[in-house]
Hints:
- By secondary structure, the protein is mainly α.
- The protein folds into 4 domains: 229 residues, no CATH class; 135 residues, no CATH class; 96 residues; 141 residues, no CATH class.
- The chain has 26 helices and 6 strands.
- The chain has a two-stranded antiparallel sheet with strand order 1-2.
- The termini are far apart.
Amino acid sequence: MPAPPPPAQPLGRSLIPLPDESLPGFVLRLAHRLELPPARIAALAGLPAAGSNSSRPLAHAMLTLDPHVTARFAQVTRLNPEEVAGLCMDRYASRYPALDLTTRSPVPRVMAISRRGWVLMHSTRYCPQCLAGDGSLIQQRHGGPWQQRWRLQVVFACTTHQRLLEHQCHRCGTPALLSRSGSNVTLLPRANDKDLHPAQCRSHTSGPCERPAPAICGARLDTPAVLTPPLPPGLLRLQDQILERLEPAGPVPPARAQEYFRLLSLVHNLIMLSWPRARHLAGPEQFATAAGTHVATARQAVEQAKAAAAARPFTFTEIHPPMRKLPLACDACAGLLLAADTLLGWDDPAGLPDRLMPLTQAAALDPQAWYWLRTHPAWPPAVRRSFLPHLKGFTIPARRTGRPLISPRQCQFQPENVPQRLPSTWSDRHLAHLTGISSKHLHRAAALKLVELASGHPWSQAAELLRLPRRNAELAVFSTRRWMRDDRNQEAFDHAIEALASELDAISPHVNYVIRRRAIQTWAMPDAHWQGFFHELETQTTHGRGRRHTISERRRQVISVLIWTHITHSEHLFAPAVLADKAHATAPGTARLAAQACEVLRNNNGYTALRTIINDYAGNLARNIDRTGTADNFNWNPPTPLTTQPAPRDQRHRNALCRKPRS
């Protein structure tokens, strides 16, 4: 068994952590004060290392520490656990989504965060004046803090000294504190070198495998190579707002800060895909030019990756990493973030869809990346609705993904509240003025569109919910699209659908037509109800003269279809009894159930009494279904006979149900 670690012994001297100081920076300053290699300090403090090699402390320690490691580090360095926890970057995790620490294994966690490109795990930015210290004796000797926020790529400037941060050594051009350890990213480069000042460049000027030992750059990063001009006021103001959202004890709630950074990332992706559409928003020419150079480099890297993957059966379904990452150079990063923040317009969220719309056409040139971006669930619903692709009034069917659908409109009704056949009062008010198209197809298309508005489903899935056969739905959509080739017709259709949706919004309570259709799917009128129904019908059609007529099962089926049509607000052609009647028709003229029901529905002269009884019966049954969810245990009492006009003498206009069956 491996030997247990030696007991923790406090060091002879220690340091007080500086504000926002990172764990690597604290180890560097403490090692310099004690004249020990940083790897030795890390090993004594119990920081995790790569395998058994204690000279390579791992980078995931700068993110978070396990409780037992925190306790040992605090005991060795003479700090309290709260001070040790303050050296780790997880204090920003509740506000900065790129610091996702949910991955259990530490090493994959570092790799995942690094791939997102909004946190620097392999290197860091820095401010030379901050590294030089504040003039105190301890900072004159060991330098100022390597700050944690410098590794967050949304931090591109030092607001104290009003300048852009640096990201590389001014002598060798290597990124600061660059770690070159493959998948096991180390906490510090040259961790065994005790002669380097914490503010010195620790990069190799020759090959890292050179023997006997590679040369070290050693340039002092706390001495600016050239004087930089002051930061423009707009960028300085943006950096102040970002730091305010990052501050753990700041005034912005964590959930609000997380939402801001998620949207900032998405808008940045949209800018990258559509560049140079947003170039005019990237600030002064220096920053816009640097942003354009970064975009060109990223696109070249994407093309190379696509060419390399062309020989393999591989399809990248997201935005390629070079297009998703923020640039390391602070001038390019500042320009892109300024453009993203300007488009985001945090003070005017309602105008976000309009501000983003000019960028969408250029972004759509990369279909796979654009699909991933426009369907991202972090977008506000209004933005996702504006991104929905349309083809002549209907949403284009989306790919099957795990992401939730977004409805094209914020509706007060649900898809199940839309009837298959719109009430005649609605269609008369909103659809009657639309000409040049079959009313049947227009009404079906309107119902499909209302379901689409409420659910986000394309017309094919809307037809399934409405129980509208796909062939009939397809003909309705095709005819409507052809009719809407005239832009005036499309505009009129869109206005009519919006008016219908507004009328549905105002209804309270809403009717669940799915429950109604399910409740009477196999329903048939009970014998007792049929006897009372026919007796009442005979009484009203003969005005009390006591004339009796033959009762047939066929007539009961016709009335059942009419009741089903009334309750479900559906077309009689798609009633279960009608569909079954058509399926079992074996000879011409036998499938007459639909025709008989149609005659009652369309003839206005001879069916007043029948409609009165059907409306009463269906209305009571519908209320029973809405209340109980089932058609069982329904009791019906015939209504009081109403005064009606005398039946026409011409037998051709008498009620078809009262005729004697043909022999």
